[in-house]
Design brief:
- It is a single chain.
- The chain is mainly beta and 136 residues long.
- The chain is built from one helix and nine strands.
- The strands form two sheets. It has a five-stranded antiparallel sheet, with no helix packed on it. A four-stranded antiparallel sheet has the order 1-8-3-6, with no helix packed on it.
- Helix content is 13%, strand content 47%.
- The longest helix is centred in the first third of the chain and has 18 residues.
Length: 136
């Protein structure tokens, strides 16, 4: 009977095998930034609300215009922060224990809004249609 030599072992112990698997998985976790981006076109007289869940999510609201938008940050256990008037530009906050961001477009032009959310466990975006003009 001929004896065949065993192939060489790349990893000699279970602990080393676990370290090799962890090392191979690191590039996969490094590629996921945990960042969510979503856009919204807010027409005149419309409102929207973004609810963000998580312990300390960080939210950036960017308005590319041309209209102006009012932004109100409501953290879960803190008083409301705002409203902040954005013509073009961005405003950002960390919402302790999650919260909501309320937007309103009271101008006569649309607003192109972009949200960037980090460290969130969930988001919900609700948009309310534009209110009809008041009859006189």
């Amino acid at each position: 009977m001929t004896h065949r030599p065993c192939p060489p072992r790349l990893v000699r112990s279970r602990a080393a095998c676990g370290l090799v698997l962890l090392w191979l998985a690191l590039p996969l976790t490094a590629c996921s930034s945990g960042e969510t981006t979503m856009g919204l076109l807010l027409v005149p007289n419309a409102r929207a609300s973004l609810t963000v869940e998580g312990s300390n999510p960080f939210v950036v609201v960017n308005n590319s215009g041309p209209g102006e938008v009012n932004v109100l940050f409501k953290a879960a256990h803190l008083p409301a922060d705002g409203p902040h008037r954005l013509i073009r530009g961005s405003v950002a906050r960390t919402l302790r224990d999650g919260g909501a961001i309320e937007l309103s477009n009271d101008s006569t032009e649309k607003c192109d809004i972009m949200f960037t959310i980090e460290r969130s466990t969930g988001t919900t975006l609700d948009q309310q249609p534009a209110a009809p003009p008041a009859k006189q």
